[in-house]
Design goal:
The protein has 147 residues and is mainly α. It has a single domain, classed as EF-hand (Recoverin, domain 1). The protein is 56% helix and 4% strand. It contains six helices and two strands; from the N terminus they run H-H-E-H-H-E-H-H. It has a two-stranded antiparallel ribbon with strand order 1-2. Helix 1 runs antiparallel to helix 2 and helix 2 crosses helix 5. The radius of gyration is 20 Å and the shape is extended.
Length: 147
C-alpha cells in the first residue's frame, strides 16, 4: 500500500481492495455450473459479501475467531470458545484452520450442508423479514392520566 495514505483513506483503500477480491470470487461462483440453479444468486452473493466484510475485523479477507464471536454476539447468540472453534472447523471442512475464508463461507451458505453458523445467519435474516416496520412510539401521558 502507498505510504502517502493514512487513516481513513488507507482504510478505504484496504476495504476497496478487499471488496474487489471478494467480487472476483463472487464472479467465479456466478459462472460455476454447480450453482446455476440457485435462485437469485447475484443478490445472495452481494448480501453474503457485505455480511462477510462487516465481520472481517483484520481486513485480511478472512473471519477469525474474534470476528465470528462478534458476529454471533451481535445476533444475540453468544458462544463459548470451544463452540466457536467447532463452528469454524465445520465451515472449513474439518481442518484446524483459525479463520474462515470467503470461499469457504460461500460454500457453507450456498451448500446443502446445514452448518450451525449457516442456520444462525439464515434465522437472523428471517427474523428481520418478520419485524414490524412501522411501530409508533407510545402515546405521551400526563400526570392527570395516571391512576
Amino acid at each position: 500500500m502507498d505510504k502517502k495514505y493514512q487513516g481513513g483513506k488507507a482504510y478505504g483503500l484496504v476495504k476497496s481492495h478487499q471488496e474487489e477480491k471478494l467480487n472476483s470470487i463472487n464472479e467465479a461462483f456466478l459462472s460455476d455450473p454447480q450453482y446455476e440453479e440457485e435462485e437469485d444468486l447475484s443478490t445472495k452473493l452481494e448480501m453474503f459479501k457485505n455480511k462477510y466484510m462487516e465481520f472481517d475485523l483484520n481486513d485480511k479477507g478472512e473471519i477469525e475467531i474474534m470476528g465470528l464471536k462478534r458476529m454471533l454476539e451481535k445476533l444475540g447468540v453468544a458462544k463459548t470458545h470451544l463452540e466457536l472453534k467447532k463452528m469454524m472447523s465445520e465451515v472449513v471442512g474439518g481442518t484446524s484452520n483459525d479463520s474462515i475464508g470467503y470461499h469457504d463461507f460461500l460454500n457453507m451458505m450456498l451448500g446443502k450442508r446445514n452448518a450451525i453458523l449457516k442456520l444462525i445467519l439464515m434465522f437472523e435474516g428471517m427474523g428481520k423479514e418478520h419485524e414490524p416496520k412501522d411501530v409508533a412510539p407510545p402515546c405521551r401521558k400526563t400526570f392527570s392520566d395516571l391512576p
